[in-house]
Specification:
By secondary structure, the protein is mainly α. It has two domains: 55 residues, Multidrug-efflux Transporter Regulator, Chain: A, Domain 2, CATH 1.10.1660; 50 residues, no CATH class. Helix content is 64%, strand content 3%. It has seven helices and two strands; from the N terminus they run H-H-E-E-H-H-H-H-H. The chain has a two-stranded antiparallel ribbon with strand order 1-2. Helix 4 crosses helix 5 and helix 5 packs antiparallel against helix 6. The protein is elongated.
Length: 149
Amino acid sequence: MKSSDSVTSIGVVAERFGLATHVLRHWESIGLLRPARDSAGRRRYGEDDAFRIAVILRAKEAGFALDDIQAMLSTTDSAARSAVLRNRRSELQARVAKAQASLEMIDHALACDHEDFTSCPHFRGAVSQHLLRPRSEGRRRHRGATGPR
């Protein structure tokens, strides 16, 4: 921590980010944070620590697991970091595609002037596109184990 950093306690930092103090302690226990200690052994967080907490929170919002965040923040191997980022990027792209398909289905239902939107040819076409996609391996295994329904 730089001497120019403002230094604060775990409670103040936790409140600043809307976290429980045990979250910060846990992140420290797994190596995500390394706050300085005062002469009495109390944690002291500076602005660099606050920035790191903000990075961790943003990564969690993006769906990264703590293990992946730890790997990205602790490695000096850019290839390892890039692999974690590429993997998460692919997962996010898949989520975005599913969300976009859901929005399109809702838009079809909202635009339909049929009394029952499920009978609308445009809506039925949008839903039919979903039915043509291959099912996940987990679903096939489950249905195979219990038989057709």
